[in-house]
From TrEMBL:
It comes from the Bacteria. Residues 265-456 form the Carbohydrate kinase FGGY C-terminal domain. Keywords: ATP-binding, Kinase, Nucleotide-binding, Rhamnose metabolism, Transferase. The lineage of its organism: Bacteria, Bacillati, Bacillota, Clostridia, Lachnospirales. Signal peptide: none annotated. This is Rhamnulokinase family protein. It comes from Blautia parvula.
Length: 498
């Protein structure tokens, strides 16, 4: 690789990787350095079990990636100028006065937040909470996790000096500097969407401690340098630690290769995030009724979107079949789904029973029985049910976005791992009735690296970032097909989904 060298650490809900990026002034080239699994750990306590993230292992994997990058580059990685970390949203670590973790971060799929939404609305008016934060109500959001913290681990919260969201936690242990990056802070339901700062009214209304929160930083902020201790431990040269768009969705959003201002994006991984980009938050009665979220983006933009359960349904189903002794590749699952009969079974991907880990195929069958549909028995039928239901849910959210913004859109930019599924891409085009432009698969990494370039002053703004991404990748276009069949299926689907 030639040009400016940077590292992007990208943590998803099921795996992570460290990637080396090289910028030659026109395009970014990527090289994989280190890839690893991200598996939750369940511990059984006296009264209940808790699902944790294995943060210590994940930080070790990050250091392994840095070491390998240095070896690849030679000269102790002296040419690597910076590193940025992005992760999934909402989760956090609590630190004591000595700056060390008080406990492993709890996984958002842990059951402790059940009932916290109802409790929150007993403390603060629902509409007022949405009016301030503009955030989609989900029990996994940080505000409701902290309420659960008060209920189940109050003594731990009292000991806490600081709360850092996951990308900020990794960056702190790299650099020694604390801050709350804006895009990840906007996933908490504690940020004022207009003021772009923590909301005292929300914190007071929900009874949450403001003392543990750190100042909000904009993406593209230099936090500091890699700690001297880490440089010595890893035999690596100094590099800047940059607060990139810490929420992986917003790193991916920065890399959407759109040429126009009005566009739709679908960041498709373990979660699907479907939305558009706005100059200012849209918070009104219609967006409240649709439960849309206004998430902080790069360049002062707002991502107006909805969170939808995504490839988690395929991933967790595959894990279940592995537990039963059948190990299918994702390509094999797609092939079996392609051969299954269309439009026979429908589910709501966001039904609460699909959130926890476990036997997803069985829960899909139970959903179909409860809604008086035929029941998918074969593997291909289950996967086809998931893919079609996701595509039709995307159509539903598209209708909501158009109704909220009053705009029409000419295409959907589908980025992330889902861009590798030709079947899902084609189904999404068919369901939405507009072309799907698939790619880049590594949008999150591209966006992470691009914000490091912005921090270094080598790239000016989002418009230039997206031009660089178009130079760096080839996208595939899926044109809509079978319009009448999919419109009829959408009508059927609406009967089973709110």
């Amino acid at each position: 690789m030639l040009g400016k060298q940077m590292l992007a650490a990208d943590y998803g809900a099921s795996g992570g990787r460290v990637m080396l990026g090289s910028f030659d002034g026109e395009k970014i080239s990527l090289g994989e350095v280190h890839r690893f699994a991200n598996e939750p750990v369940i511990l059984n306590g006296k009264d209940r079990s808790t699902m944790y993230w294995d943060f210590l292992r994940l930080f070790h994997e990050l250091k392994t990636g840095i070491t390998r990058a240095g070896i690849m580059q030679g000269r102790s990685g002296a040419d690597i100028s910076s590193i940025g970390v992005d992760t999934w949203g909402v989760d956090y670590g609590l630190l004591g006065r000595d700056g060390m973790l008080l406990s492993s971060p709890v996984h958002y799929r842990d059951s402790r937040t059940e009932g916290m939404l109802k409790k929150a609305f007993s403390r603060m008016d629902r509409e007022r909470l949405y009016e301030i934060t503009g955030s989609q109500f989900m029990e996994i959001n940080t505000a409701f996790q902290l309420m659960a913290e008060q209920e189940y681990r109050e003594e731990l919260l009292e000991q806490a000096e600081s709360m850092l969201l996951m990308p900020d936690l990794f960056s702190y242990f790299l650099s020694g500097e604390m801050g709350s990056e804006y895009t990840i802070a906007s996933t908490t339901q504690m940020l004022d969407a207009v003021k772009k700062d923590w909301s005292g009214e929300v914190l007071e209304g929900l009874g949450l401690p403001s003392r543990i929160l750190k100042p909000v930083l904009m993406p593209g902020t230099r936090l500091g340098s890699l700690r001297d201790e880490i440089c010595r431990e890893l035999g690596i040269g100094p590099m800047d630690v940059i607060a990139v768009a810490g929420h992986d969705t917003q790193s991916a959003m920065a890399a959407v290769p759109a040429e126009t201002d009005d566009f739709l994006f679908l960041s498709c991984g373990t979660w699907s995030l479907f939305g558009t980009e706005l100059d200012v938050p849209q918070i009104d009665g219609r967006s409240f009724a649709c439960n849309m979220t206004n998430e902080g983006g790069c360049g002062g933009k707002t991502s107006f979107l909805k969170n939808i359960i995504g490839l988690w349904l395929i991933q967790e189903s595959r894990r279940q079949w592995m537990r039963e002794g059948c190990e299918y590749s994702f390509g094999h699952l797609e092939s079996m789904a392609r051969d299954a009969a269309p439009f026979v079974y429908f589910i709501d991907p966001d039904a609460p029973e699909f959130v926890p880990s476990g036997n997803i195929p069985r829960r899909i069958r139970e959903f179909c029985r409860r809604t008086e549909q035929k029941v998918p028995e074969r593997v291909g039928e289950v996967v086809r049910c998931i893919d079609e239901s996701l595509a039709l849910k995307y159509r539903m959210v598209l209708d909501e976005i158009c109704a909220c913004t009053g705009r029409s859109y000419q295409a959907v930019h589908l980025v992330g791992g889902g861009a590798q599924s030709a079947l899902l891409c084609q189904m999404t085009a068919n369901a939405c009735g507009i072309p799907v432009i698939a790619g880049p698969v590594e949008a999150t990494v591209y966006g992470n690296l691009a914000m490091q370039l912005v921090a270094a002053g080598e790239v000016k703004d989002l418009k230039e970032v997206r031009s660089i991404i178009r130079n760096s990748e080839n996208m595939k276009v899926y044109e809509p097909q079978d319009a009448e069949l999919w419109q009829e299926a959408y009508g059927q689907y609406r009967a089973f989904v709110r």
